[in-house]
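Hi Y.,

Following your request, here is the sequence exactly as I used it, all 450 residues.
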Amino acid sequence: MATIEATAQSSSLEPLAILSPKTLTGSPAWSATFSIDGKYLAVCFGNPDSHIKVWEHQISSSRSMSEMHKIQSNQQSREWKLIATIRDEHTRTIRSVAFAPTPSTLSVPILASASFDGKVLIWEYYPDNENKITAVGGSSNTNSYDETALENNDAFEPIAQLEGHENEIKCLAWNTTGSLLASCGRDKTIWIWEFFLPGTIGGNESMTAEYSRAEGDADQGGEFECLAVLQGHDGDVKSIVFGPSHSQWGEGEEVLFSASYDNSIKVWAEESGDWYCAATLGASDSLPQSMPTVETGGAVHASTIWSLGLSPGGVRLFSGSDDGSMAIWKMYTAAERKILFPRASDIVACSTDGLWKCVGKLPDAHSSYAIFSIACAPSRAGHGRIVSGGGDNCINIYREEATPADGGSSSDAPKFALEAVADDAHDGDVNCVKWHPMDGTCLVSCGDDG
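Below is the corresponding structure, written out as tokens. Let me know if you'd prefer a different format.
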């Protein structure tokens, strides 16, 4: 697993730190997640040594926390300290991890993990339990630290266990407020849980009182409640992400996007407390479709859709497929739809619904290899930047081309150029890429090489 710096001037990606635990024996790193302020980084590993490792971003005592919000380039700003190794509770490969967007003023990270054992665990950080570990330096050399001292570390303790999936869970996603957590898996379902996290409306100051267990068919207790079990995909659900509804679907402020083995993307919306499928994008001929592009002539992707990425404003969606292509989708309001695409009225679920349309495609984004992960850069990283990781062992950064007067890139016909490449970034598939939330020059990647 590596943290990487994007250098725009040289169009290159340079490793800042390689966080590679010495004791791993063939365990792939599946998923990585930053906390909302970028202070913590968690990575989950699969069998044969399935566990989670958590690092903390180090700042010297002479620096204030506000400096986390500045783009820094010195070595000290890149130091990470391993603070926890989580091995308990899950019994199979841990496939996904996600930090909740809890307020930075709370300073209590909440981490969700999902496993092939069908369980979601919620972990809370207890810094008083942390063992003292030497900080790891910000260089391109492999970092060293005392892993043995962390094997029994209990800095993160489980506070809830959510059950309901029949088997493997593939992905987790929090909404922007931390009030909802979604999970998806091999059983073709998506579960949506309502949480009352500390520091949020309805939440307590802490969730340390009791380790609770919630199941979809049981009394949930006060903190966790299953709001919906969404069914509609014909295959494994590989990726999910929350986004704003822009008042175009349902009554809720957010919608949920899901990508599947069935080659489709679904948009789920909430109406009167019930979640429903508001649209299906790029599906097979037997399902309602969004407006196809002339170039695709129908289905946008020809194979499994592994990954989704949503732009910061929530009006552009990116999808990556096993067929090696990356599609760019644009959201149109209901008013725009009625004017620009009048025949789309036959495929929308409601007359007031907007429309997601494929407006561009990179057919060979990773040399025909599968695209396993896509992430849109935060606004501070510059307009239109996306990063992708694939089965070609590479990390690519694409950037939307400037809009020249002669009619170049536009929102209805965007053009993306390859800006930077990290060839052989990992010795195997690149399973996950994520931008640092506060530093647009930094991202993390993890792969089959652990």
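The first helix runs from residue 334 to 340.

Thanks again,
Q.
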